[in-house]
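Notes from the pairing session

We agreed to fold both candidates in a single pass and log them together. This is the raw record for the first candidate, unedited. Please don't reformat it; downstream parsing expects exactly this layout.

Candidate A
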Amino acid sequence: MVAIVYSQVITLVVTCLGAFMILLDVNRVFSGANMAALIVGFASLGPIFFLAQFFQQVQGYTVLEAGLRTFPISMGAFLTAPFAGRLAGRIGPRLPIVLGGLLAGSALFLLMRLEPDSGYATLWWILGMLGIGFGLMLSPLTAAVFSATPPTRAGLGSSMFNTSNRFGNTLGIAVLGAFVVQQFSGNITSQLTQRGVPGPIGATIANKIAAAGAQASQVHLPGRLLLPPDALHQAINQAFVDALHGSFLITGIAFLAAAVLVAFLFQRQPARQMSVAPADAQVTTVATHRDRALLGVMLALVAHRAQQPEADPAVLAALSSAVDGRYPHDWSEAQRGRAVAQDVIEPLSLLLLTSSGSLEAGNANGGAPAASEMVPDAGETPPSGHLME
């Protein structure tokens, strides 16, 4: 689990830094909305998952009853999202997102008062407040992405927003889950020590219970444990709730960070609107060159594999049929296929790679000829043995 968490964190840092530096030069609103979507995704699913576990494992409700007790979160988001969308259409997305981040962060800070015997009357309005914060953020974030994306790139903008949010969901479950498990084990040891259990025995019990997860009640404990079952159950519940406090603190800070990020990046939206179209044209040109380079690499790999002794006969047959009649009729399909790979595919891949590189350099210097002018027509390819001469 620790290795997974470290891998996810490293991936998050690299992705965030790269995306932030690139997208910030293109459009502050687009980059800010995607970064905020990632943070919101990170901080949104964890609290809901842990609250359901709290209602079910600590307070003893069934799965259905625990789900119903998290209903104010869904209802708050459901009722607020349409209003937030209309509000963003009138005054812009900045204010609803910032307000939603402040509400959600404040609700998570209030949940840090959660105790094993907390009544639902003290919780439902905090959960509704959390849902309202979610609703105020999601619709305006989506609107901000589309407002900063040219119509011809709307699909790309939508996919980037969804990817950022889903990646945040995955990262949040992994990181917060690992954090809660680690804190849970240490808290059990502390709770048992406070109740007179020796340290080594308490550590053994804590490791077994933390590893069992939802099946902690079925763990076989030392027979000579001088602790009543009710006291042990209370210690486990308190240890779990204390671990949740840390996760609520992390996610609350994350929501506040998203609000600050949006407040900082969205303030220059009118000044940056005119730069979207030129940036889109530049991205399109770079993408064309990149596609040409990728095609060249793929063709080079095909040519290399076709010239190997263990080449796939089906690939050689396909290459042979591509230029039927260009080689002697007494050659086998394998010979013709290898000749095509050497005389046609390999030189074409080199030309594609060379043209894509020279065009990018030419654009950096102020202009270059079209790529189509540098790549010969396939019909002009000379016969075997004469192309490279």
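Candidate B (folded immediately after A)
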Amino acid sequence: MPGSVADIISGLSGGAVFLLLYVGWGFSLVISLVIAGLVFGGLKLIFRRPARELQIQFEDLGLTPEMVESALVEGSERVNRIRALGKQAKTDSVKKKINDICGLADSILDYIAKNPQGIKTARRFLTYYLDAVQNILNKYTELSEHGVYSDQIAEVLSKVERMLDMINQAFERQLAHLLENQVMDIDTEIQLLQQTMQSEGLLRSEAAK
């Protein structure tokens, strides 16, 4: 969010809290000003936090936003090419398998776009697996479109079709690994929030309950 907009929202919110406490509920001037100031400062930190966190994530990974964006664009292009190859498949079952794989790949790319730190976990997915799947399906399409199969060609085509199930499972696990990282991040955030509120006397400790 742009700084000027964040400042306006924070200021209006702080002012509204002050009026509510001082005029509406009859709190003292000092207490009303202190609480309103805390609201103002807290909102400014919240609005600024995502950009700062994103910068830290990129620095920790040794990446730039441009590098992540480039990887996502290339990944999306590969998924689109895989999806196009799937439409050329001769059987509905193969089309569905490839479509399911592309759906999982889209979910992985979407996750990384929203959580750039996930690129570390999914690096092989971006740099190898998508490219390998595309190359295999290119050869599969070339072999199957002729309609004339030797025993060897039929075996290779069958092997590719079985491999699609394995690829689907691998992409499911990749997405699960990314989501597990998010669960750990949420758990850490919850613990930090609880500790902060307790240290500021906003929550009773478990022993005091």
